[in-house]
Each structure stands twice: as C-alpha cells, then as structure tokens.
Predict the 3D structure of the following.
Amino acid sequence: MAGLFAEPGQARQRWTVRQGRELLLLEHRLFQAAFSRQGAQLLHFQPRGQRPWLWCAGHWPQGAAIRGGVPICWPWFGRHPSESGWPSHGWARLSEEWQLLACDWGEQGVQLLWQLELCDWTLHLEAELGETLALRLVTRHQDSEPCQLSHALHAYWRISDVSRVALLGLDGASGHDLLTRADCRQEGELRIEDGCHRIFRHTGVLQLQDLPWQRRLAIDTRGGANSVVWHPGSRPLTEVGWNESLGFLCVEAASCGPDSLCLAPGEEGVLTLRASLAR
Ligand SMILES: O=P(O)(O)OC[C@H]1O[C@@H](O)[C@H](O)[C@@H](O)[C@@H]1O
C-alpha cells in the first residue's frame, strides 16, 4: 500500500482508484486504513507508530479477488458444495456492488457500515477501527425456506517471516487438516513448516507471536465456530512472488464445513473477528 497516503494536506477520508479498484482511504489520528469497494475488503490497517497489521499482494488481477487484507468469504467457504464452476469462497469478495452506508468519525476511531444486497440476501459488514480492529459480518435472508451458509473473515496478517512466527492459543484444539485430509489435534504452539491448512473446531483469543518484529497480535476468532489457519507453503500463488508470500499468515474466523449454518427465515448469521496488540 506504499504511496497511498503520501500526499500532504489530503482529506482525512477520500476515495481514489488503484489498479482499477475504488479505494476508500482513512487517515485518523490513531491509524491509517484502506478499504476496496470490491468485496468491502479492508486492505490496510496500521495504527500510528506501528507496522501494518495486514498483508496485501502488490498486484491485484482484474476480474478476480484481491489477495490480502480481510477478504469476506460468503455465502460459502472454499469450494461450493455442489456447483463446481462457481467461484471459490463465494461472491462477496468479487462484488463491486457494496454500498458504504455509514462512516462515522470520533476521537477514538471510525465506524463503518457496508451493505451488499444479492437476490434474497442482505449482508452487512460493520467495521470499528481505532487502536484495535473489529469486524462483524451479519447475514439476513428473505427466503421462506431455511438457507445454508458458510462464511469466513479470511485475514492475511502481516508478519516478518512465516517460518519465524508462532500461533499460541490452540493447544489441545482439534480440527481437520486439509493438506493431510485427516483429523488433527494441536499440541503446543503452531508453527508453519511447509504450508498449513487446518480448520479448528475451536475459537478464542489466539496470539500471533512475531519475535523478529517484537510484536504479538491478539486475534479473537470467537463469534464463529472455527479458527482457520492457512499458508500455501511452497505452493506458488498466482501473481504473488515467493518472497512476498513469506510475509503473511492467514488466521481466520469462520463457520464452515460441518459447522456451516442453516439460517431459518428471519434468523441472522453473525461472524466476528477482532484484533489488538497484546501487551
Ligand atoms: O486462493 P484463494 O481463492 O484466494 O483462497 C485462498 C486459499 O483459501 C484456502 O481456504 C484454500 O484452501 C486455498 O486453496 C486457497 O488458495
């Protein structure tokens, strides 16, 4: 996101266009942040005096999802359960139809409300940015029948080097390892050797410890059913260089797989993700 905030005297909130995407830039006394309208995706968040908390790829392919920040996976996570041609992780992160309904400034931060209406569905993303970061995704539908939903806030956390960080708070948690296709149980801290894709049936306040950067982020995945940890390891990612991919680890809040939701008419599906600097 280098250069986005470089112009002196700019407004504290403004729209700009980068790589064909409409971006909302926020310049608050406590932080800088950027959202793309596509996907209502928080791409950048940096409290003053700190390193950025979120990683984002330098190149954003046209007509595809932006890899980085906090993509919203919705209304399904991963592959669609029955439609093999439908896009991975759903439509929300591809849509440019998101509307910004509110952006309220205060001394302690900014509260934003984004909305996407799609067929019978209404999706809201509530964001509270200040010294900490909080995202809340709320799904409603108007169908007369129950609807299936899986979703994730697929955050790409920026780190010094994926081989040098540890994720704490999952000791004893069980889940499913999608790389080995076997159930798994975490013992002690989680370190990434060559890739990771585990869906834990556990949520909590996880600590992403980054010793080279002397930083520990507390990532709160409570509010969903799962914590997901993903890194591609040596598997190449389209248009992301090898060195670039060492700089993130995805730690996500989700409800997916066997923990997907079945929303009765009028029922809301809610997912939250919060982060703060651990003291
Ligand atoms: O590559 P995408 O569609 O942005 O999703 C990110 C990753 O999400 C994970 O859940 C998938 O298992 C990976 O295969 C995928 O690469």
In short: The chain has one domain: 13-277. The first strand starts at residue 13 and ends at 18. The CA atoms of residues 29 and 178 lie 42 Å apart.
